[in-house]
Each structure stands twice: as C-alpha cells, then as structure tokens.
Queue: 4 jobs
Job 1
Amino acid sequence: MGETKLKSKQKEITLNQIMNMEKQERVHFANSIGGFKSVGLIGTQNKSKLTNLAIVDSIIHIGSNPPLFGMIFRPGVVERHTLENIVETGFYTINHINENIFKQAHQTSARYDREISEFEVSGLNKEYKNNFFAPFVEESQVQLAMEFKEKIELTINNTVLVIGEVKAVYYPEDCLQKDGFLDVEKAESITCSGLDSYHKTIRIDRLSYAKPNQELTSILPL
Amino acid sequence: MGETKLKSKQKEITLNQIMNMEKQERVHFANSIGGFKSVGLIGTQNKSKLTNLAIVDSIIHIGSNPPLFGMIFRPGVVERHTLENIVETGFYTINHINENIFKQAHQTSARYDREISEFEVSGLNKEYKNNFFAPFVEESQVQLAMEFKEKIELTINNTVLVIGEVKAVYYPEDCLQKDGFLDVEKAESITCSGLDSYHKTIRIDRLSYAKPNQELTSILPL
C-alpha cells in the first residue's frame, strides 16, 4: 500500500473495435468499464395494486437540497413495467441489496409478464409502511421512499432519466454516524459491476474534507 | 450466508427531518443513502493546455451501442473548471481509482484556483497517448478516452448531466474475460460512499442471465 505497483500489460480497445463486438460481448464490456455501480431494487405497484420489483444498476445522486436521485431506464420489456408504474402512480421505493438476497434480486431481471409480480417469483417479501403507496423489500436494510418528480428523455439513445425526491429513509439505527454519513457497508449493502457481478466491500478509509495545502487525515473512527 | 439475519432496529428519517438537518449533515446523509457510487478521476485541459483533474462520484452508464456514460456536475467552483474544459475542447478522460491513489484522488476535490493543475498538487502523473487531446492519469489501471456529446440542464436543481461517448478503453490485459466482462475488481478499482469513504471490493459471485422458471447458476470461473 502506498507503493506504486507495476501495471499488468495495458491493452487498448477502440470505439471501432467495441462496435464490431458481438452484441452480448459489447453489452458486457460497456456495462463493466465504468467501474462499480449503484444498484438497488425498485418497488412499485400500479393503480390496481399489482406489484413490480426490478433491479436497477444506474442509481445516481443528483442533489442534496432536497435529496434527489435519478436512474436510467433503457427501452425494453424488463424495466418498462416499473417505469409505467412510477409515472402512473408517482411513487416508488429504492431498496438496497445485501448478500442474503442478491440472487433473488438478480432474478427480478428476468422477463416476466405484466401480470406476474417479481415479489412472488423471487421470494422477496413486500412491506408496506406509514401509508406509503409503493411496496418496500422487507429483507432490505436500507429503504428509500421516493416521489416521482421528472422524466427526461435522453434522445441520444432513447433512454429515460427518471428523477425522484426522497420522502423518507429507513436504515439500521447503528449505521448512522453523527456527521450524517450513513454507513452502507455496515448496513451490508453491496455493489455490482457489469451485468451480473456482485461485490461486498471493505472500507479503506474515510478522509477529511480536502483543502489546498492541507494534509488529508483519516476521520475514522468518528 | 444464505440465512436471513435479524435486522438491527430500523429507524425512519422523513424529508422534513432531512431538510431540517444542518447543511453539512444533510449533504453527508443525502450522498450516502443511495449506496455505493461509481467514482473516477476526470482528466481535462483547456485550449491553452492548462490541465485539470477532478474526482467525480456520479458516473453512470447510459448506453452500450454506442457506449455512453454520463456524470452530474453540481453548481460550484470545484468541478466548474472540468465542465468548462469539456465543453470548450470536447474531450475528457475517465480514470479508475485504486487503493494506491485514493488519497491523491480525494485531494483533487479541494478548491484550487483556475491556474493550478490538480495533477501537480496531487502528485498524480499526466499521461498522453495516441494523440488523444485530454490527459490520462498514469497511475490508473483502467482509463477511458471520452468525447463530449451532450449537456443537459436538470432544471429541478440546476445541475448538469454531461454525456460522452467512449472512444477508447485502456485496461490490464488479464482483466478482460472472454464474454466481454472487464473485471474491475481484479484491476483493483475501488468504489466510494458518501463524500469521503473509499472501499475495496470482494466478489460474491457472477450470476447467469436470469430467465423465468430457471435456476440461477454461478458463471465463475469463466
């Protein structure tokens, strides 16, 4: 640690070569080159109370005042029901994934028919609380109640950015630090890479606020 | 593993309570509740070849055909130089962070003046190659050459979504799997949570493509 290791031999792949890949190879490659992703289970239901659960690996923090998160929906059957429910009802939940439920979470990405609830087929349990319209995943340790705010069409490739506001957060009591940091590693949340690789984490450090001409220090333990 | 653990006692924080937090506490909280984030170093230079390097923790995969990535820029001094350079010159690099350089990477978030290069003050080395306009981070094991495509104003909170296309990818030869998956854990890329917490990963598994009524299997080793 601290010493510069020799790199493995570095290779180059150009855009032309990427575009010449077989489709599934390109999808694996493009999904993995950006690094680890924010992944969660999106819980929704339509007005007839038919529930839907979808794994989404494109959750992005957009703002803190108020707290806003976005996610990208690609054209396609799997996530379409979730997007329809969000727009139709205005509410959804974001549920963190942990090692105990990562297989059930991955299974929600299968192409089920509209009338089938991924809660039923995955074995994950619905949880309703505090009169919030959308269902949470009971097995999830960190759950966000979200209100739909805006849908932005990304014309460059016909995807949709959905932006929502955090209405409430549910978290394990011992995971919130006194400076406002929610320790998602302690909450056993996991990350993913590519289309199908799931990873636990090991904290390296928390660092002090960076200022010019000032040495960084560890702020652990708080 | 596999068994459902009892949760720690779960607490609720509502939007009202979040909005009543002291500003820094709210920023820590809002930045951490979404889970682990995609983090990288964005390398740019202006037309006068003054370089800039900024850590960005909102990298998001937008598409595979062609490969597109987005990132969110918040209004503010730190990231503004990077955004200006991207729009002015049309090019930037995304460089993965590893344990050997996470402190230098974090230091780039300090508010340096326009004429100061974060490459110089952080001690990270610039690398130019294949006539690409923007500088890479030499210490980074996975590097993306990006062309600016589109800037979308998110009026909901005056942030900007910048979308770019991947022109080339540099990666350690032994990290690319035959199905197109780039093993970023093997490449020692790290993830972050909140504003200042850095994490290594441990793979749990890679899972087969999910289909209705079909058991998931591990696809390791490939």
Job 2
Amino acid sequence: MGILVVGSVALDSIKSPFGSKDDVLGGAATYFSIAASYFTDVSIVAVVGDDFPEEHAGLLRQKGIDLSGLERRPGKTFRWKGEYGPDLNTRTTLDTQLNVFADFSPKLLPPHRTKDYLFLGNIGPDLQRSVFEQMKRPMLVGCDTMNYWIENQRESLLKTLLLIDLLVINDSEARELANEANLIRAARRILSWGPKTLVIKRGEYGACMFGSESIFIVPAFPVEEVLDPTGAGDSFAGGMMGYLAATGLHDDAAIRRAVVFGSVMASFNVMDFGPHSLSNLTYPEIVSRYREFRKICFFEDMLLKTPRL
Amino acid sequence: MGILVVGSVALDSIKSPFGSKDDVLGGAATYFSIAASYFTDVSIVAVVGDDFPEEHAGLLRQKGIDLSGLERRPGKTFRWKGEYGPDLNTRTTLDTQLNVFADFSPKLLPPHRTKDYLFLGNIGPDLQRSVFEQMKRPMLVGCDTMNYWIENQRESLLKTLLLIDLLVINDSEARELANEANLIRAARRILSWGPKTLVIKRGEYGACMFGSESIFIVPAFPVEEVLDPTGAGDSFAGGMMGYLAATGLHDDAAIRRAVVFGSVMASFNVMDFGPHSLSNLTYPEIVSRYREFRKICFFEDMLLKTPRL
C-alpha cells in the first residue's frame, strides 16, 4: 500500500485576524502528507531550494514521511504570502514566488513507481500526466487542480481527467470546470469526463461526494477556534486518500468514511497556524472526532409517523 | 395541537435567471403555513388589503389553512419586488411597499389564544411580544427575526428572546445578533439570552441546530432545478414547526427530525416560482425525500480499523 503524492512544498507567510507567521512550512504536498501519515506510508515527490530549513524536513521525517523524492536544488524554495479577511472566508494572495518550483519536472525513483496510491497535487496537468505515466499500475489515482489550469490548460486538464479515479476540488473550481452554476449538474458533467468519483470541498460548509449512483454530503466539523485555514483542503485530501490506502477499500461506503476522515483532518488543521496542530495529533483524538462527527450528523428515520404523513 | 403563525401575507414580484412572475402569493406566513399544513392544523394571523385576490385565499383554504385571523383592510396588500443574481445566492430588493402591513397590530380571536404552538414570524419584536401576551399558555414558541430589527430594535428583540423556545434565523442574522463571526460561539451567546434551541439556516448549505448540549448540522437537500428561492426559509420553519406540533415531541432527536423535515419542505419550495411547487405536494413525495435525505447524509462508524488507527 502507501501513497505517492506529488505537489508543492513551500514556505508560507500567513496573516490572519489572529496573528501572523512568516516562513511556516507549507505547500499542498506538505499538508497532504502529514494528514495521510496518520493512516499509511507516504512518499513525497517535490522540490525545495537550498534555503529549505532542515527543521522542516525533520518534522516531515518525524511523521514517518519518505523524503527520498524531495529534490533539493540550488535556489530558493517556493514562497507564498497571503492574508485572510475578518471571517477567514476570503483570502488575498500578497505574493507568490515559484522559485525552484517553476522548473519542477519530477522523475520518479524506482521504488515510487510501484506505489498503489497516487495523488497528483495541484501542478500543471501535463506534469500530472508525466508523473502518471511513470507509475507502474496504481490502484487508485487522486487529483487536484485549480482555476489557473482550468482557465489556461483546459484541454490538457481534460486529458488528465481521463486517467484518474478521484478528483478533489473546491466548489468554485467545479463550477468553472463544468461551466455550470448548479453543483449537481456540474458534478454530473465532470463525472462524464473520466473520474469515477468527484469530491467537492466547500470550506466551512463541508464537502460533497458524487459517484456514478451516489451523492454524499457532509458538513464541516464545527471548530470554535479557527486560526488559519491554510492547507485545510490539502489536509482533507490527505486524510481521505490516507484512509482509502490504509483500508484498501474503494466502495461507496468506504469513500464516505474517507470523506469524513478528510473532514476530520481539515478540522484539526485549521486550529493553529501552518501544519502545527495537524502534526501534533494523537490517534485517539482522530477517532474521537470521527465519532463526534457522526453524532453531529445523525438523525433517525421517521420512526414516529405524524397524523397526516 | 395546531399552530398559530403571525406574519406577512404579501404579493411578490420575483425575477430570477429562470424567468419572472408578478403578484405571486407571498409573505413569510404564507410559505410557513403551506409547509406546516402537510403536518398539522395551521391558523394564520395576518393582514391583507382589499386588492388581495380571492384565488390566493382560495389556495390557502384548499390547504386546510384557517384564515379566520386574516384581516382584510381597505388599502393595498404588502408588496415586495426582488431580483436574484445568476447563482441565486444574491438577492436585491427592488421595491418594498408595506401598505396595510405598516399598521399591522394583531388582535387574536379567542380560539387562537389557546393554540399549543405559536410561531412569531418576522415582525417587530414589540408586536411579537404583544401576540405572545395574548396567548394562553403555548407549549412551544418559535420565532424569526431579521437584520432590520437586530439593528434598530435590539433591546426589544432581546426581551422577545426571553419568551421563546426556538429561534429560527439565518447565518448572517445570527452573526449580527451575537456580534460574533464564529457560528458556534455566536450560537452559544444567543442561547444564553433565552431560546432553548437555535436553528441557523444557511441557504444552499443547509442548517445547524444548537441546543444546550447538542449540535446538529445538516446540508441542504440537493436540488438540480432551483427556479426561485423565495420563501425557502419560511417553508423550512413551517416544516419544522409542523412536524413538532404534529408529534408533540420536543426532545433532541425529534428536533433533529424536524430540522430535516424543514429542509425537505424548503427543497421542494425552491423548485418553482412562489409557493407553486410547495402547495402541490403529495405525502409520499415528502416521506420519500426525507428517506433520500438520510441516504445522502449517511456514513458508518469506522467499522474497519485502519492499520494505524
């Protein structure tokens, strides 16, 4: 089993109404793999510059994450700087420096080519396919993308969609990709383009899962102290793929549980800056939040017939 | 049993990306009572002008709704004109004419004073209390309000909150009332002001219920063809109160089921202009959507332990 994730490892500078932190360990592959590391073995394929702090690599190693595919190149690490509005729902990117990430062109190591689970993080769709083509025959391929690729590399993205099993994107991306405002119709259209399962992330409103014959909708786990939403979507994808890889199950019921584990990991992640809270979890905390989640979503069948119904 | 609802009966002119209709039967008390009429007896206390079409009154009567408290006064009926944006999430009020509703000051008829369930629709909080004080001793009192009263009659509104059991408002109202961006903290603050239960409506994202020791969150039932969201929140409140009144149950599990019935009624209401789809339902349709709702929200306990968890 085990997951190979390809994507960004970055240094983030984050400002939220609750404080600000500079050069925090960031990047989609970072959040994804820390979340997934609680469930299964994870190998990162990414690139950093020679300024990447050893302490950050140490944190990832401490979570058992395989960094043999983390290339170090001369130059600076991908840097992102962003600021959140008062309700944390709006985010402004203040600065993006791709640096060594601009020429990222992953060559997989032999042990990585035989991984059973592959997650293609938010990189160019051409690059996503080049990674896919280096793999032997993965059991399940997940994929993320973003508005930039939808707008600028649509044809290439559609080719990538033909190869994958699971697309994990947010609601505005789904609407833009399908060119359809209604989320159900957007989902149906996207499913017709290849993915067997589409998971749409809706931030503080939770997530929807669409399969060929199934719809599953779950709210976000309610968190009272949200300090920094950075990486929530990647933590979600990591928890989800982690659970699937750990169990080897891909049926509808398992995917639903995986979506809930994804939501659980995202809910932990937002409780502190960067991946701080995500990387300091215990197994009982994860299990207990999953169970609390069930209580929050639970309602009975209409056991009591009303006089008229 | 049976519910007394006090609120507006109006003539609405609605423009949505899917068409426009003029002088449709509208108003909070209208949507509320049609939704509730599938569950229990409903009596409306409201006022209309002498221009109110007999056909609209006929529709309400046909749903078994008691109109003995619907006052007809010389003058024009409350009129509202609004337009929805492309994704139906933004609404612009183009015109509001209170007309006879401006001097609405309900005097309850003797049979109405002994109703067990009371819903105080979105009218001024002074007026809400004057209605409450005319009641004998209702078993459960629900209440709605809006930003206008929160901003302009806050002290009076807080007095009303002391009297009620169930407050049903939307998320922006909850945040403004509590002066708190985080919904969980906002809910806790509002509950400390009197209501035993707070239900927060989140439009296409569903609803949350907060009790003293319980949180329940449910998504909206996914509807593919949303034509007109007008009255969705009132249909929600009507379905919810209707179920509670019909069963006489007020425990946590019953309130959860009631929230789901509220969501079911709201989801039917948005499928056509005005109360058209809401008023043409069959009981099997309501029951079957409730059950479909359960399937959409269902996930198992973590039956399968992952290697690490």
Job 3
Amino acid sequence: MIKYPNGKSPTKNIITKKRITNAANRGMDLEADINLSNEYYKNTKRALITKRPTPINVVKVDYEKGARITDAYFEKQSTTDYNGVYKGKYLDFEAKTTNNKTSFPLNNISLHQIEHLEMVKNMGGYCFFIVQFSALNKVFLIDARVIIDFHQKQKRKSIPLAIFSEHGQELQVSFSPRINYLDAVDKLYQL
Amino acid sequence: MIKYPNGKSPTKNIITKKRITNAANRGMDLEADINLSNEYYKNTKRALITKRPTPINVVKVDYEKGARITDAYFEKQSTTDYNGVYKGKYLDFEAKTTNNKTSFPLNNISLHQIEHLEMVKNMGGYCFFIVQFSALNKVFLIDARVIIDFHQKQKRKSIPLAIFSEHGQELQVSFSPRINYLDAVDKLYQL
C-alpha cells in the first residue's frame, strides 16, 4: 500500500488542486474518495455507481445569455447520494461525515432519506451507509437497517460508535480504489 | 412562467391537471406521464424509480443572500433520465419523443448515454428505452440492446418504426398508472 503525505493520491491532487488544505479538512475527503473509488469500479467493470446531483431549484433563466441560470437555490436531497448497479442488483447508499468522537448524530439524516432507504430495502435493493468519524480517522460501512431501527425504535438522537464497530465493517483506505467498499458489500450481503 | 431548455418545469408533474390541451400538446406529455407512473409504482410499493435531476454547473453562489445561486448553466445528461429498483434488480432507462412518423433519429441519443447503457447491460441491469412517436400517438418500450446495435453496427442515422413494432412492445396509456411500462418490463425480461 502506498501512503502519500496527507493521505492523498496524486490523482486526487489533480482533481482537488484548488482545495485549500487547512485544519478543517486535514483528513480524507469522504465524498471525493468515494467518487474516485466509483471511477475505479467503473473502469474495472466491477460496478456502475453514480452520484446524484444536488437538486437545484431554478428560478430564473436568461435566454439572451444562452440559457444562463441567473437565480436558483440548492434543495435538500430527498433520496440518497449514490445509487447504481452491482452484480445485477440495485445498490443505494448515503455517505456521511461526523466530527463527533463517540457517536453519530441522527440529525445528519433526513426523514425523507430514511423513508427512501426503507423503501429500497423492501424492494430487495441493497442499502447502507458509509459513515466517517473524521476525528478518529475511521470509516464504517453499515447496513441501512441498523440506522433505520435506531431512527424509528430507539428514539435516540445519536448512534454510539460501538454500534458501528459491532454491526458495521471498518473500511481501510488504500491506493486504488481509495475505499474498497464493495468488498464490505460482498461480505455484508454474502454476494 | 419560467422556460426550461426541454420545455418542462420541475413541478410540472404536480400541476399537470391544470395543463391546457391545445394543438401543440394534444398528445401525452411523455415525461410527465412517466413521472406520474413512477409515483403510482412507489405508492403501490411495486418499484422505486427516480428521475435524475438535469445536471447544473454552478458558477457563482452569493452567500450574503443565503447561498443563492447567481450564475449557473445546464449541462448535458451523460447518463440516462431514470433509474431505480424493481424486484431487487437495477433498472435504467431513457425516455425520448420524436415528431418523426417513420423512424426514430439517433441524434436524439448521446454517445455517453449509449456507453452508459451498454455498461449497465454488462453489469446485469435491465435497460431500455421508452420512445414516443408523438405524431402517431404511439409509445414503445424497447430493450437498449436494439438501440445500441443500431448505433454501433448499422451506422444508420435513424431506426425505422418497423423495428419498434417488431422488437419492442407498444405501451397503452391508461388512467392509473398512466403508462404501465413495468408490465412490458416483466414480459421483456421474463420476471
């Protein structure tokens, strides 16, 4: 395994060279790393997972400027960040990061997303969360069922770290793919 | 009223009942009807299919106005319009309309979309096209393979209507769901 200073690969620097490294993002950038992994999976024909664009509500378009949008705003994602196909099956997941050291706050997840994931699960799709505890430098993959249960039954406001160690799988960061989360998916769903 | 490049507003499916039927849209509005069908499939727990938002490249955001986007432009979709989960499997399709009476012009489909669909197919997902011949008031569901083959091997610029009648399935419009395309999917893939 090749380790780069800062935990960043050369390709990553090309894509994110404009990003300023400061105390706030000293660690890995979860979303960028998942995107790179998805590119790797696509190139190696293992899976095709795409990121849903953040929905934008367009208010005003200037046609004299060639359909340039002059007023719009970001909307909340009501589904999840990623979906795609793996071994013919439908796969759907959400990636989240917390600075918290002992638990994952549930206010990170909207009720719409919980409903969406529950529906996917009922329809036989695979759905899970990839959760990064940035202060601990740990990333877990956990079945959405665990999160949904916490959300609905426990009425807790956060999920203790121990739940992730017990019911989830810790993901290691490597060179290529950056985060080999599909190996964890294979194990979780016995594919 | 805001005009979008494809003539459709994001809220259109909500307000279709107010739609004025005139000479210009005497026929069905394919996208709106598919969206309504997907809502029906979701409510009846048959499938969960979502429309990918049109990708927008955000150039400028005014944070003083509360993260209001002040400059952005529409990008070309490099994937397809719809994807989701049906019977645990991954489903991916593109909806297209033509005014042509005898054939479907291939310049309606980008090379990126062909590549995307071919990849989905290789990974075991179900992918197809829903093509509307608006002047004929006919809608067909056809496996993406037929379209990909035409695109790659025949080097033709359009696909004759006869190919759709022979290799595709004609879809009927009804009340609810508006277009019951999943019955055609069942038949096509023997689900």
Job 4
Amino acid sequence: MKTDTRQKILETGAEFIHLKGFHHTGLQEILKAAGVPKGSFYNYFGSKEDFGLQVIDHFVGYYALMSGPILEDPALSPLEKIRKLLDWFMDFFKSKDYAYGCPIGNLAQEMGDLSPAFREKLRSALDLLVDTYSGMLAQAQNEGEISQDLDVRAAARFLVSSWHGALMHMKAMKGSEPLENHKRFIFEYILKP
Amino acid sequence: MKTDTRQKILETGAEFIHLKGFHHTGLQEILKAAGVPKGSFYNYFGSKEDFGLQVIDHFVGYYALMSGPILEDPALSPLEKIRKLLDWFMDFFKSKDYAYGCPIGNLAQEMGDLSPAFREKLRSALDLLVDTYSGMLAQAQNEGEISQDLDVRAAARFLVSSWHGALMHMKAMKGSEPLENHKRFIFEYILKP
C-alpha cells in the first residue's frame, strides 16, 4: 500500500514533468491527479527536488523496460536493434502528436545549470544511454556491420546527443522530419561498413 | 527613452530566460534587475507570452549580429566559416562554464508543446538557422569543399539539430566534450569532399 502510493505519485509526476518540465509542474496538480492526499507526499519524498531525482530513476527504469525486448532479441543484429529502437520511438512520438521528447534530455536542458544534484543524476543517466549504444556499436564492429575505424564510444555519444537535438526540433516542428533526418544521416554516413 | 526602457527589459529578460527558462523566470525579477518600475512592463508588452515572443526575436537578432562578421568574411571558405562559428560558440560556452545552451533550442524544448504561438515563432527561428547553414553548404558544394551527393538542406537540418543536442549534453556534463565530439563527427563523416 505504501509502495503503491509512492509509485502512483512517481508515475503521475513523471507524466507531468515529461510534458511540462520540472519547474512548471506543481506538486498539487500531481497529487490531485494521482488522487493522493496532499500531506502524504512528504511520507515518501524529502522535497520537490528529491522527488525530481527519483522521477529520473523512474524514467531510466522505464527506458530499460521498454528497450529490453529489442536489446535482448537474439534474432536481431546490433544495427537492426538500433534501427528498431529508433522506429519504436518514432511510432511512440507519432502517437503523441510529436510532443514530450526524451525526459532525460529535457531535464538536462532545463535543470543542468540550475541544480548540481539533478546534473549529477542526469549525467549518469546520459552516460548509461551512451554505454548502451557503445556496447551495441562494439558488437556491430565485431560482426563487421560498421567500420573498424569508428571510435565506438565517441560515436555512441554523438548518436545519443544528436538524437536529443532531433527531438528538440521535433517539438518545434510538430512532425517526424527531424527524427527521420537523424536516422538517415546516422545510417548513411556513420553506421556503415 | 521609451525604446531604451523596452530594450533594457528585453536584454535583461533574455539573460534570465537563457539561463533559467521561460516559466522559471519571473517578471518581477526581470524588472527589478533592469531597474524598471513594475507598472511600466505593460506599456511595452501585452503579456508575459508576448514578451517571450519578442525575446525570441531578440535572440535571433543577437545571433545575426554575432555571426555576421564570420558569415560575411570574404577571406573564409564556407567550411572555414562553419568551423569558425563552432569555435566561437565553444569559446563562448567555455567562458560561461558550459551553461546556457542555445536559447532557441532551449525554448523549443521547453515551450514547443505548451504554446502554439511560441512553437510557430521557434519553428521560424530554427528554419532561419537551417537556411543559413543550407546556404553555406550549397556554397561549399559549388566550391568543391563537400561532396556533390550531399543533400544540403537535410544536412543543414542535421547539423543544427545535432548541435542543439550536443548543447543539451554539455549542460549535463559541464564540459566541452559533447561539442568537440559534434564538430569531429560532422567534419570527419559528413562535411567532406
């Protein structure tokens, strides 16, 4: 019961913060939408900042849960996994009318300069994403799908940061073109034998 | 005098919004920092949103002013101009301890989903950036600096969106690595003969 309430607050807050940002989301609207009495928030979270940091963990967990079946599919080659991940996200954002973007990237942009605690947490979350792509690229190199000359760690950072920028543009353009453009340049120019 | 006060409010507001975002910046702190009486804001701006839209124009004007001398330098080739612009920004962000990011990209991320008026304004501002790069890449193609096969319009979009993502990562990493990495991949893999 205690865990359920905490989880409900986290999930509801994650939804608001993903769309509206951290500062623009009020605790009251989260608790109202979650149907949780106002006083009980501080049973689970020390402060709004502490809550925000736990929401980042929630997003990281969600990403792992979502990408797991693709990343662990033995029928897919490393590059096929990257293509499938991008396609999954493109379908997701289409279903959301090209809103939201990546919550980790959004919060890096919003909070990176304003809170050292957020910054550290977001840096770890971004590094984890880069690690995941780096691992896939190393495997792609072993399997001959991409050039041996590619610096896989640097390429993984470029892939992730470039994707975050494409999502920024998607939100202003309200369309898939920046995402499709990202995919096209990544595969035509960088991820090739 | 009237114009000076309006300009002072715009410049002060731009500084706050660039660092803290639109929603997290209060009109009161802007007016206090600008030394302008609270009541006079509405002589110049219809609402906070109207003010925000004019701040975007201010940022676009600042970008044109800053980049003009590089873009119009007849001694530089098109690719040298792009290199020099990136170097200018890398020096700028170093001097700011890797804070701020691009105000147009930041606001696209923060406001793209929340205000149609912001979205339209930001879409135009992003298109203008893409146009500028597209023009330079077309010239680079004419001068044989880059491949004739490159789709310059799409490449310009990729350059700009990818740079915005690198700035997002910069803010979380508090360092130049994402920016240097962007420059490296753009020039090693895309902008070449």
